[in-house]
Amino acid sequence: MEPLATGYDAISHPESSMHDWRVSQLTRLGIPGSLAEVYADRIDWHQIARLVRHGCPPWLALRIVY
After folding, report:
1. Model confidence band, residue 16 (pLDDT cutoffs 50, 70, 90)
2. How far apart (Å, rounded) are the C-alpha atoms in residues 65 and 27?
3. Crossing angle between the packed helical segments 58-65 and 45-53, to the nearest 10 degrees
4. Separation of CA 29 from chain center
């Protein structure tokens, strides 16, 4: 488990922390880390999650959404 960001970190680097959070959401859904890094800021991870919850393979969900 990652340590919580301090207030300074959260204020100083909001873009990178949001990117990292999106990457973690995508990898949790089954998207490989390297692809999650590339697409984290380009797609809505909620759409991926919805498709995966309905049985779509993660790689196909990524292809559909992107």
Report:
1. confident
2. 16
3. 140
4. 8
